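JOB MANIFEST
job_type = single_chain_structure
chain_count = 1
residues = 309
[input]
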Amino acid sequence: MQPLTCVPQLMSQESFRLADPVQPEVPTSVRTPRRALSASSLNAYATCERKWYFRYVCNVVDDPGSSAASYGTAFHEALEAFHKVYMRPNPAEETAMRRDLAAQLDRVFADPDAKFSHAVERELQRRRAIRTAERYIDWLLAEARLHPFTVVGCEAHAPLAIDGYDFTGYIDRIDRDDTTGDVTIYDYKTGSIAESAKEYLTDVRAGTEFQLPFYYYARSQSGEKVVRLSLIPLKDSLTPVRPVAIEITPLVEKDLDKARTRMGKLAATLIEGSQDVYRVATDPDACTYCAYTLSCRNRPVPADEKFGR
């Protein structure tokens, strides 16, 4: 039996032809799907249009999450459960409050869905949260002694319509003063935040921060008298909790009005308008924790890397 052999068959020039050249795709503008916007999405757009494009138009899969993000999610969940029980913080219940908040933190950090890289990191973050919770209780009881209040909302849904565009979000905590009925809105922050009300309002005036203005109008539209907006820092377990409190004055309300107008204009741009180009941030710091840096060839170069490139 003869062995099989493969003899290459040479193709003649007449047996094939080159395909027609592919014409470049005609550039088209991008329109955002009409859906409810959030203050955080507008913050992202104001920081870096390209990041907003990747996240909200392309629906690019984000990174699986960091230890810092998992810490924040767990702390928020524990505080929500805690304040559903302790709606009127009472100094007479201090021991129970400290015990129960620690128990809530133990529960959420034990959840296997909490994304930590390994068991040691999970335990370190749990201990950090429990130490920070002690500072939180210190501040909470001091507030209750000065001005008794009732927690009337935790993770409260906050819908808002501006110029015909829908916005949505969730407020971490809403308090009502037991004497005056005035409302304070709180936003928990487990990452870096403005160090003062002045610094925060500077960002509001610059059109790069919309979170608290959005919450203010979402609650005010129902007739509530919101007198204070406050950020509660829960990042540092070594220092006392000192909220960044913004008292609502006529001047502050003008800043909030401008932010509201800006939100309406951005909504019109993103939903009704169209863009051919989504610009990248000019500040390299905006890229530090961005999940899309490897996909962004136009990102700004940090000053200490410019010479090397």
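[summary]
The chain has a mean pLDDT of 87.
The two ends are 66 Å apart (CA to CA).
exit_status = 0
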